[in-house]
Write a structure and sequence with these properties.
This protein is mainly α. The protein is 60% helix and 5% strand.
Length: 210
């Protein structure tokens, strides 16, 4: 960074060369790594560069990453860079099923592309189809067993989910989904909690799929 270079030049003038070198190296290390850790943990996984390109860092479950995860993925960046210009990291991306570099594998994190929020009328489904829940019997149980108050709750939950903090959103969706998996006898382990909840809402509010 230009700011780091400026501070190093100031240190060289104020301190003996041996001392300024050690202090400067320590300072550069702190500034460099704290930059990534700060934005990844305090700015929803988006550094200015990632924000500009529509990317963000999340943990393996899609939740916000922790300070420890951010520190690990950035420390391992040094290995990703070897032997030059991210050679090892690029090779790891080609071999890993999720396209992750070594740092992301070690920290169990993912770099994902953000999608623009859909229109309010489409948020209930987000391109998820009723077929994801299984056969006709599942849809019939949903329509017959979910009462009016529950329908209103599900509609409100789906519409306001974007406003929730990520971890709270994840926990709430998983809790609601666990209830309906049991109550409606839904065997769909491939669906996450949020996908299941939105799938149920899509059955109840089919007009909103259009």
């Amino acid at each position: 960074f230009a700011g780091t270079a400026f501070l190093l030049s100031v240190l060289n003038r104020l301190l003996p060369r041996a001392v300024s070198g050690a202090v400067g190296a320590s300072l550069a290390f702190v500034l460099h790594w704290s930059y990534h850790v700060y934005f990844e943990t305090r700015q929803q996984g988006r550094s200015p560069g990632k924000r500009a390109t529509g990317l963000r860092v999340v943990d393996g479950r899609g939740l916000p990453i922790t300070v420890q995860q951010s520190f690990v993925r950035n420390i391992v960046r040094a290995l990703d860079f070897l032997p030059f210009f991210y050679g090892a990291g690029g090779l790891a991306c080609l071999l890993d099923p999720d396209g992750r570099r070594l740092g992301d594998i070690a920290a169990d994190t993912l770099v994902v592309e953000e999608r623009r929020p859909s229109r309010a009328g489409d948020r209930l489904t987000l391109d998820r189809r009723v077929e994801d829940l299984g056969d006709f019997d599942v849809a019939r149980r949903i329509r017959n067993r979910v009462g009016l108050e529950e329908r209103e709750f599900l509609a409100t939950l789906c519409q306001r989910a974007e406003r929730l903090e990520d971890r709270a959103r994840y926990d709430l969706m998983e809790e609601v989904a666990a209830y309906y998996r049991k109550e409606l006898e839904i065997d769909a382990p491939h669906l996450s909690g949020e996908n299941l909840v939105r799938g149920i809402a899509a059955v109840l509010f089919p007009a909103r799929e259009r």
